[in-house]
Each structure stands twice: as C-alpha cells, then as structure tokens.
Design goal:
This protein is mainly alpha-helical and 128 residues long. 46% of the residues lie in helices and 6% in strands. It has five helices and two strands, in the order αβαααβα. It is flat.
C-alpha cells in the first residue's frame, strides 16, 4: 500500500512539472517527460540507423529520445545466469532500431505538430 501511495504522489508531481518540448534555438531543458511512445526506425536502406536519427533529433530539434528497453538476455544479470546465448535475429533487429519518443497526455496541438514535423524532417535529412 505504501508503494502505491508513493507512486501516485510521484506521478502527480511529474504531471505538474511537465512542460512543452523546447523549440529550436531555446536553451532551457525540462526534466520530466513521459516516454511511452515506442518507435521503430530502420534506415538501413540509406545506410543510417536509430542512433543517427536520435542524434539529429537531439542536436537540431532539441527532442531527447531514449533507448530504454532491451531483451532480457542482454543484461549482465541474465548473462551471469546463463541466458546470454540466444539466437534471435528478428528480436535483435527490432530492438536495435527501437527507441522511446517523448509523449504525454494533454500534449497541445502545437507541440504535437512540432514533434511530428521534426521527425519527418530528420528522416528526410538522413535520406540525403
């Protein structure tokens, strides 16, 4: 019960602190966003990968995406337990190109338009 109360208080605090994504040229950062929108980017057709996209989004558009999930057998704890020798090429390809995009409830239309147009522009830059 204590854990549930702590989590609900933490969530209320995060919702209160959520602020819009800074626009290009702004110099301030925000510390709390919910990254719950999982995206997949496969730029192999033009020699690029997820990290290339994340670099452009961070550097040019100030949108900080994160990589937060990996297959369990990649973690040292599971490797120590002998779960490191799996051959999962589809899973590897999927997770190596997956990332979490800043997304939250109550996002206004202007912010949503900025995020979507930035991703489109960044991918166009990667295509050359």
């Amino acid at each position: 019960m204590e854990l549930i109360l702590w989590h609900s208080q933490r969530k209320r605090g995060a919702n209160r602190e959520n602020k819009p994504v800074p626009k290009t040229g702004e110099t301030h950062f925000y510390s709390t966003l919910f990254h719950q929108f999982i995206m997949h980017f496969d730029g192999s057709a033009f020699g690029k990968d997820r990290n290339d996209l994340l670099d452009i989004l961070t550097r040019e558009y100030r949108i900080k995406c994160i990589v937060q999930y990996y297959p369990l057998y990649r973690y040292p704890l599971f490797q120590k337990l002998g779960a490191a020798d799996y051959d999962c090429p589809v899973l590897e390809g999927w997770w190596d190109n997956t990332f979490s995009f800043p997304w939250w409830c109550g996002m206004d239309d202007e912010t949503l338009a900025y995020l979507t147009s930035s991703v489109k522009s960044a991918i166009e830059k990667l295509k050359g």
